[in-house]
């Protein structure tokens, strides 16, 4: 779920540049190049919004520091490790060491989202579609995005196959891949425009204009909207570099690493990771909450006191405008109880793995244990997503067409998350969000003490998890209650279009309108352009549109609003398409999601199936693991469905946790051969392939 948050938090990360004479891998001296790059005007290095709990403000200058720091001095790099080093494959800090050595910015945090098609701006380089009221498309102006009758529903169809866990996993993994910071609007930078108080279209404000009847109901003529921060030097910032033209259109940043690397657990920067680790532990643990526990199991810690409190306080709490949020690798962890529960599961899983690895390898340092546990957790995120989640979204035929079997790492594949994936296609999940939080008792029935909770009463309320039963009731509800079905006549539930709670915003917002406005803000081409990109036929008339969208009333509504299929916003057009067989998306979004997931897999040299990353024995063990096993190991549940994403009826569809296989960490035991002081991991012939070749970067700790 993408929610606007208008209050920056945390503190800026300092430079990590070390060494004044070392050359970068490109042969250019680091400090002189850095000085030249840092000559750009200050407002091109301005702060952009973080998220509650992130603990770090994002700076354009951070990326300069990271890219230009010599390899031997980068955090996480083990300098001087010889070719005969121990056969332990180590995982890099992704914000520093990227997926390909030839293209170090691919997939890196704080770089631009990838463009698969050129952007569409009304002035050619920055102004979104709909910015100028007199601009016509096929002879008609674009409709305002606040057309709730096109996307909102008070009712929800029930998915008869899949559980709410499928929905929350999509939301969780989305937060592992992308976060687009929003522009700020200080008077000094923007001539006094305050996006919370104006309905004027003036950068960085692109307010969502409300129809007259809605304005009368709400007492306001618009909903506030901040444009996404432009990547430095693009769009109207190009004037700073003498390049204000359509050849340098506005691009948007991704504050996170693109990779499926469990940045939700560990963060996307060294500064974030530093806040999350337990530095007093010898077992490589993550920090936990010292004030509260869940029947002896850990909760996430709260954000530190120096971070402005940003969540809703519990009833009866000491008078305060805001309460601390949970601290996690991604600052959106407190959005809803289900998302907070999944974050908490992986915190517990890391600490469980770390404790077992330390018991197996007592000689390992805390950092070695931490990195090995982190590497396993990252692999499990990849496995659950590509093996279990994505095939259910795309369907078997689209999965074969757009993803297919793994054939190894391809250094020519750019894994960077694309703008259309992040801003439109992967937001299909907003149509599967259920309006109620269902919490169940030990018998998987409605909980007598925890009634169904409207989603609007759960936003940014971490106390709901701590004070109302802990993780287990929420997890039971995710497993045993169906997701909302994405139906053409019932797209986004009313709590997301009428009562979306956004911090620092007094009025409820509208998620469907935010999605449409964000797509225009990012310059996404219209629906037909993306169909052509995916090899699908163009749709010119209502009759054509009916071949992609069987529901005639939806077709009529879209044509009445947009007048021509070319004008349809890609998020709404893709969402309304007929669902593919055994899938949860239509052909357009299946194409975009499939292409992105394949790029994330094939363009990641640290993908878990790459033979240079884990040994053969370790890969075998990882392949046995599953989300149900993670639930068994980290909650009080004693029985689970074999497939966490399929709705299970208790008890017939549940099995004892003792029957759910998991990985055997013996494959990670490090032994010392007789007469050799150097340790090695005795796991078969694959271990020999882990040593670094001349000129290859070591696996940083």
From TrEMBL:
It is a single-pass type I membrane protein. The keyword DNA damage does not apply. Its EC number is 1.11.1.8. One of its GO terms (molecular function) is iodide peroxidase activity. Pathway: Hormone biosynthesis; thyroid hormone biosynthesis. Gene3D superfamilies: Haem peroxidase domain superfamily, animal type. Residues 16-35 are annotated as: Disordered. InterPro entries: Haem_peroxidase_animal, Haem_peroxidase_sf, Haem_peroxidase_sf_animal, TPO. It catalyses: 2 [thyroglobulin]-3,5-diiodo-L-tyrosine + H2O2 = [thyroglobulin]-L-thyroxine + [thyroglobulin]-dehydroalanine + 2 H2O; [thyroglobulin]-3-iodo-L-tyrosine + [thyroglobulin]-3,5-diiodo-L-tyrosine + H2O2 = [thyroglobulin]-3,3',5-triiodo-L-thyronine + [thyroglobulin]-dehydroalanine + 2 H2O; 2 iodide + H2O2 + 2 H(+) = diiodine + 2 H2O; [thyroglobulin]-L-tyrosine + iodide + H2O2 + H(+) = [thyroglobulin]-3-iodo-L-tyrosine + 2 H2O. It is found in: Membrane. It is an enzyme of class 1 (oxidoreductase). Transmembrane segments: none annotated. GO terms for biological process: hormone biosynthetic process; hydrogen peroxide catabolic process; response to oxidative stress; thyroid hormone generation. Pfam families: An_peroxidase. Keywords: Calcium, Disulfide bond, EGF-like domain, Glycoprotein, Heme, Hydrogen peroxide, Iron, Membrane, Metal-binding, Oxidoreductase, Peroxidase, Signal, Sushi, Thyroid hormones biosynthesis, Transmembrane, Transmembrane helix. GO terms for cellular component: extracellular space; membrane. Interacts with DUOX1, DUOX2 and CYBA. PANTHER family: OXIDASE/PEROXIDASE, THYROID PEROXIDASE. Iodination and coupling of the hormonogenic tyrosines in thyroglobulin to yield the thyroid hormones T(3) and T(4). This is Thyroid peroxidase. The gene is TPO.
